[in-house]
Amino acid sequence: MPDSPRPPQPRVLRVAVPTPLRRLFDYRPCQTPPPDGWRPGLRVQVPFGRRQVVGVVVDCVQDSDLPLARLKPVDGWLDADPLPDDWLWLCRFTARYYQHPLGDTLHQAMPVLLRQGRALASRMREQWQATAQGLAADDARLRRAPRQAELLTMLAQHPQGLAAQAILAQGFSRDQLKALAAKGLVACREIPLTAATPHAGRLLAEPPLPLNGEQAAALAAIHQRLDGFHPCLLHGVTGSGKTEVYLQLIEAVVERGGQALLLVPEIGLTPQTLARFRRRFRAPVVALHSGLTDHERLDAWEAAASGRAPIVIGTRSAIFTPLARPGVIIVDEEHDGSFKQQEGLRYHARDLAVARAHRHAIPLVLGSATPSLESLQRARQGDYRHLRLTRRASRHAPARLELLDLRGRPRQGGLIPPAIAAIGETLAAGHQVLVFINRRGFAPTLACHACGWLAECEACDARMTLHRQPPMLACHHCDKRRPIPDACPECGSADLRPLGSGTERTEETLAALFPKVAVHRIDRDSTRRRDALEAVLTQVRRGEPCLLVGTQMLAKGHHLPHVTLVVVVNADAGLYASDFRALEHSAQLLEQVAGRAGRAAHPGRVLVQTLHDDDPHLQLLARQGYDALAERLLEERRAARLPPFRFLALLRLESPREAAATTLGGEAAAALRRWLAERQLAVDCLGPVPAPMERRQGRYHLQLMLAADRRSQLHEACAQLSAWLEASPEARRVRWSLDIDPQTL
Ligand code: ADP
Ligand code: ZN
Ligand code: ZN
């Protein structure tokens, strides 16, 4: 190959550095350039203020706004090769779309060890093998060294070679290996140490299931175009076999030499899910979950970037996994709230998946039983292909919701007599019951019956939750804890009583009502130990009658074949909330919970307790299901000019001093309104107003909402707003952030 002419050495490197400042910083190259010269995407160590930080070269240029002599040189480069192209593209896109500083975006999107300056070159391990000479050697040569002879025999039995660690674990020594190597009988290779090694031969370890008609049609539709951007909404009721469609799609993509990236909600990446993928494929399945060490995470990243990992499964942040040969991106439960990061870099992994699939020109599958209104609307408009699975793989259709009127009925642990009776009948029939209550702790708060005092958090506009296991008052917003008082702090009365029910109280009540069956409570408190949840679920899957009491941890993803009755303690939380998405989210949650019932041999029942059984939305959901409600909600959103028919951004401001946040918010809004008027941009600017929970963790929260019909105009306004804030000296005392496409207001 002819030598391509080397580009001239740049005089200036423009480097993205992890700081909140929305700009690049110029440096001079250091004395020794990397072997292939300076290129964008190289990680460099640079002096920044008084610190040393890891930055990424974004541009190599000849000039700077500053005199060259005043620029500091970079301290050195960290990798000979730039970071992966597709990853750099995604980070730039993310920074631009979410109006987040590029330096911090790159920093957040790389594995911790890379942030800290570790080399990307994969960690290697020694692999020892017998040489041809070693295989042919007769025993005579090693007569005087019997251990070496044994070692050689062992290696000869493993033609693929053995890792040094495995050899040492057999009681052999390094000296013995070296002695054999000196005689030319064995040799050592360095191979990358990663979770994934390429598979050889057949891809599948177990045969795929024969698909039903709808599954086959959906798969065929996706197959039609594996070589272009081809977004599909796989809209299938719970238990309709979406996962089987993913499995067979991944199979097809990997057979063609591509890589598959599957995103699942935080709650969805269970050992059970992973096991299902690992059972199916002989090829390695790399899982990116919170249990990984930093080293394992880097290895997985590297395995994906190099193409050695054909299948990558992970939660939200896995969208930032580089892929050498991207073949498909799948987002399971695409409506799930955990795909949106709610602090710092506030990205939505599903939306980035769409952008990424478009960039790579590959198919994209968004799967859900209860699609977000955003995705549903795009499917209705024809932007996404709308694929439906209406039948369950098992015999029984998902159960309809039966509404139970809570008004005027006595409650025990939150449950009214008809619900308790149904629980008793189900247990007597030998089945299992799931009681869903979206409140952990014993009771939502503690109240004084003499004077009406309620236990409130000092730092938040919120009540403290009463816990009994262990006993305390805890704020679920800031995690402050207090001992339970013996007497009312206001009036001294000892008549303090729990108000309402949480999981602990419902568990206690059910254990008293049904002493013969096991009651398992599943919430964040009961599953702090890593394997606690799996241990309980394994026991539950054995099938003996039992009661499960849990929060939304239980609502999603889990296949509980013996549950035939689901009771929702209170469905009202989302009905009259101020957030315009509350109803959508609570309908999705109800439908997911209901989907736990009757997934196997027996049909299911779902009882929903409510104070508003005549609420039209709830009735529509109960009678006609999520799809009908979603249609209605879309019409309401259109009429109210809300997403997905309009685009929103939120400026969030917070400060320990209310006045500081209010003043800055007011000035920023005024400046923005002037600017919008000058440019005649159709962007509405609403507020600033106090956030729904104004005081949180001792800080005041304020927000300014921007709304526009055109996304480009919204982005222009946001760019102007952040530039104004960055230049404002007041803004140093107030924490502010932009939230593009906010999921909660
Ligand atoms: P979803 O992801 O839509 O909730 P799953 O893929 O988990 O549904 O499927 C639900 C159950 O149905 C699983 O136990 C699965 O093994 C089974 N299943 C899925 N597809 C088929 C099929 N084509 N034939 C038989 N069983 C199937
Ligand atoms: Zn009192
Ligand atoms: Zn608090």
TrEMBL record:
It catalyses: Couples ATP hydrolysis with the unwinding of duplex DNA by translocating in the 3'-5' direction; ATP + H2O = ADP + phosphate + H(+). Binds 2 zinc ions per subunit. Keywords: ATP-binding, DNA replication, DNA-binding, Helicase, Hydrolase, Isomerase, Metal-binding, Nucleotide-binding, Primosome, Zinc. It is an enzyme of class 5 (isomerase). Its cofactor is Zn(2+). Zn(2+) 2 binds at C457, C460, C475, C478. Residues 483-641 form the Helicase C-terminal domain. Residues 223-389 form the Helicase ATP-binding domain. Zn(2+) 1 binds at C448, C451, C488, C491. Its EC number is 5.6.2.4. Component of the replication restart primosome. Belongs to the helicase family. PriA subfamily. Initiates the restart of stalled replication forks, which reloads the replicative helicase on sites other than the origin of replication. Recognizes and binds to abandoned replication forks and remodels them to uncover a helicase loading site. Promotes assembly of the primosome at these replication forks. NCBIfam families: priA (TIGR00595), PRK05580.1-1 (NF004065), PRK05580.1-4 (NF004067). This is Replication restart protein PriA. It comes from Billgrantia campisalis. The lineage of its organism: Bacteria, Pseudomonadati, Pseudomonadota, Gammaproteobacteria, Oceanospirillales. The gene is priA.
